Amino acid sequence: MPSPARQVAEFDSATAMLRVLARCLDGRDAPLLGIMPGYLQAPMSALLRAAIRLPSRVTEKAYAMSGWAEALSPGRTGDIRSEALAEWIVSHYPRRRYPAVFIGSSDGALVHLAAALGVPWLPQTVLVPVRRRGGHPDDSCAGLRLSEPAGHALVKANPDLVLHHMHDANQDRLMIAGMSYFRVKWRRLPAAYRGFLRDCLAPGGTIIVTDCGLRWPTTRIGERYVFQHGAYGGITAEEFHEGSPRVTDFLARNGSPHRTWHAPAPDGDSPEAEWGFDPSLLADLSDFPVHRLRFPAPQALSPAVADLYRAWYRQRGIPDTRMFASCFLLLEPWWTLRTGSVPYWLTFNTEPARRNLLEYLDGTDPYDEIRMTLFSNGVPALGQAPIQAWREVLTRAHATGTFTGVDPAAYPRDFAAFARMHQSLARVRPVYPMPDPLDLDFALDFLTHHS
After folding, report:
1. Which stretch of 111-115, 311-315, 404-408, 411-415 has the lowest confidence by average pLDDT?
2. φ and ψ of 45, to 5 deg
3. By the 8 A CB rule, do 201 and 288 touch?
4. Are 36 and 45 in contact (CB under 8 A)?
5. CA-based nearest residue to 335, from 443, 438, 440, 423
6. Burial of 284 by CB count in 10 Å (0-12 exposed, 13-18 middle, 19+ buried)?
7. Cα–Cα dist 229/266, whole Å
8. Cα-atom radius of gyration of the chain, to the nearest Å?
9. Helix 387-394 to helix 351-362 angle, to the nearest 10 degrees?
10. pLDDT of residue 45
11. Can you give the pTM of this predicted structure?
12. Residue 194 exposed, middle or buried by CB count within 10 Å (0-12, 13-18, 19+)
């Protein structure tokens, strides 16, 4: 049976956020997002830079194969055990007493908040990539049909999980050519989480539920099994299901035999597969003191956490005019704190995410320095902001506006960014001692009253 570490995706948001936060709480930074040893950072960066120079079809194939290589065989989904997954998750964190523990939705701003507080986060959702043979990325009906037996085997073996089979042929089209995205959400508190809370939550401590209210149209396949066509990002759910002239043009440009996405008709909606919170988990938290942190969409927390960091830095007597804008899974909370950077997390490299950042900059005191990293998903997706649009954001800095680890000429195929981002941020000066944890009551009060 594959170990839990081999069942979940290394390239997923939840896994990366778990890893970099756990390393930060252990007093360590996260070169290569903690996936590989730090001494491989330079050779990996050089290797990926060389790969960028290959023809685009070759780099796209290599990118897709890297994901396929870590995907699970469809015949092994019935071997997955949710308790083993939960035990693997809690094993990342140092065993000590914490004044709070976050549980729930994935969110990059939350990672920076937890790092400042010095507390862990236990995800409700993880991604299990499952290999698939056949089916075109633009025909999600075929993708569902081919992967449905594996989905039923997974939910049958795990009565405490809900399966959200997500198929995004816009942002994830390279990866889903050979795999299915099975995102699983706990609807009951696993024993490993309960044990971690019993052993590591300080007396009088608080569980903070991160409740992203984002929902998406879905098709019900079984009692605990839904299918989600499309995903939160650059275009709306309506455009995924109803099509548009730009969808037709996008499919034509990508050489697809389709001119609209072929998807099962939705019969309801559900918590969004990657980001949404399933409230059924709340029933098992009634024995604990709970603070519910609710927000409508992933990036909605980013302005509040950025402003909280600025207030905290002013309390500490250090400048609050240096921003680091992270993107998707490209996070480095340890160096964000060491460089005295104000974190602003971008959900993805999309135009809606860029507009939200600009709205924040328009409504806050100016920043002298803005550094930004961008996740590259290998394809010019619909709703993706071009590199020149991101350059315009950097002009908002009064003194220094620069990319961090990004090769603008290679974007959105800049696969070396995950290696270079850490290197670039670690070179920022001045640096500051790692601070004592931010006061929990101050943080919760600040977030409660933030506009």
Report:
1. 411-415
2. -60, -45
3. yes
4. no
5. 423
6. middle
7. 9
8. 21
9. 10
10. 67
11. 0.95
12. middle
Distance CA 48, CA 387 (A): 19
For β-strands 225-229 and 268-271, DSSP reports them as unpaired
Residue holding tokens 């480095």? Answer: 332
* Residue 165 backbone phi and psi in degrees, to 5: -80, 110
Using the predicted structure, report yes or no on whether residue 58 has a pLDDT greater than 70: no
Q: What is the pLDDT of residues 239-274, one digit of tens each?
A: 999 999 999 999 999 999 999 999 999 999 999 999
CB 35 within 8 A of CB 10: yes
For residue 334, the one-letter residue type is: W
Sign of CA dihedral 55, 325, 14, 185: negative
| Full 3-state SS string of the chain | CCCHHHHCCCCCHHHHHHHHHHHHHCCCCCHHHHCCCHHHHHHHHHHHHHHHCCCHHHHHHHHHHHHHHCCECHHHHHHCCHHHHHHHHHCCCCCCCEEEEEEECCCHHHHHHHHHHCCCEEECEEEEEEECCCCCCCEHHHHHHHHHHHHHHHHHHCCCEEEEEEECCCCCCCHHHCEEEEEEEECCCCHHHHHHHHHHEEEEEEEEEEEECCEEEEEEEECCEEEEECCCCCCCHHHHHHCCHHHHHHHHHCCCCCCCCECCCCCEEEECCCCCCCHHHHHHHCCCCEEEEEECCHHHHHHHHHHHHHHHHHHHCCCCCEEEEEECCECCHHHHHHCCCEEEEECCCEHHHHHHHHHHHHCCCCCCEEEECCCCCCCCCCCECCHHHHHHHHCCCCCEEEECCCCCCCCCCCCCHHHHHHHHHHCCCCCCCCCCCCCHHHHHHHHHHCC
**Residue 118 vs residues 64, 273, 298: alpha-carbon distances, Å:** 36, 28, 21
pLDDT digits (tens, 9 = 90+) for 373-393: 999 998 899 999 999 999 999
Q: Determine the straight-line distance between the first and last CA of the chain, rounded to whole angstroms.
A: 49
User: How far, CA to CA in Å, does 37 sit from each of 29, 111, 194?
Assistant: 11, 22, 31
Q: Within 10 A of 102 (CB to CB), how many other CB atoms are there? A: 25
